[in-house]
């Protein structure tokens, strides 16, 4: 399984945008909700599961989309099931670590 990631810094905090690689470039629409999983936001590079784990553990702000990505973060204790939202069956989760 590969993940598409983009790492940046926001106010000296590590920010991670991560998604299931196969979602990159897709648009997810449900009613009036519309999410574009763009290459400019999520597509800096492709990583394997071990690197994705490390990035998830070490980032303070995380925007994540996709079943594999969200499941991995929950498995690592990052975020909670109650914070997960879905659009057309695709889960997404935003985490701010304090």
Topology:
Elements: E1 2-10, E2 13-20, E3 27-30, E4 33-36, H1 39-42, E5 45-48, H2 49-58, E6 61-65, H3 67-75, E7 85-87, E8 90-96
Number of strands: 8
Into which percentage range does the β-strand content fall? Answer: 35-45%
The major sheet is characterized as:
6 strands, mixed
CATH superfamily: uncharacterized conserved protein from methanopyrus kandleri domain like
What's the CATH class, please?
Alpha Beta
CATH architecture: 2-Layer Sandwich
Strand order of the largest sheet: 5-1-2-6-8-7
CATH fold annotation: uncharacterized conserved protein from methanopyrus kandleri fold like
Task: Give the topology string: H per helix, E per strand.
Answer: EEEEHEHEHEE
N/C terminus separation = 29 Å
User: What is the average per-residue confidence, as pLDDT, rounded to a whole number?
Assistant: 94
Low-confidence stretches: none
Q: What is the radius of gyration?
A: 12 Å
Q: How many domain units?
A: 1
Helix content range of the residues, please?
A: 10-25%
How many H/I helices?
3
Please state the overall shape, judged from the principal axes of the Cα atoms.
Answer: globular
In terms of structural class, how would the helical and strand content be classed? alpha+beta
Give a verbal description of the structure.
The protein has helices at residues 39-42, 49-58, 67-75, and strands at 2-10, 13-20, 27-30, 33-36, 45-48, 61-65, 85-87, 90-96. It has a single domain, classed as uncharacterized conserved protein from methanopyrus kandleri fold like, CATH 3.30.1860. The model has no long low-confidence stretch (mean pLDDT 94). The protein has three helices and eight strands; from the N terminus they run E-E-E-E-H-E-H-E-H-E-E. A six-stranded mixed β-sheet has the order 5-1-2-6-8-7. A two-stranded antiparallel ribbon has the order 3-4. The protein starts with a strand and ends with a strand. The chain is 23% helix and 45% strand. It is of the alpha+beta class and 98 residues long.
């Amino acid at each position: 399984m590969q993940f598409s990631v983009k790492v940046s810094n926001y106010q000296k905090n590590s920010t991670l945008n991560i998604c299931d690689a196969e979602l990159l470039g897709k648009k997810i629409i449900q009613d009036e909700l519309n999410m574009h999983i763009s290459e400019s936001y999520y597509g800096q590079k492709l990583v394997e599961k071990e690197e994705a784990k490390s990035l998830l553990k070490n980032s303070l702000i995380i925007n994540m989309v996709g079943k594999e990505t969200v499941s991995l973060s929950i498995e690592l204790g990052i975020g909670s099931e109650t914070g997960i939202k879905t659009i057309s069956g695709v889960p997404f989760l935003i985490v701010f670590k304090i």
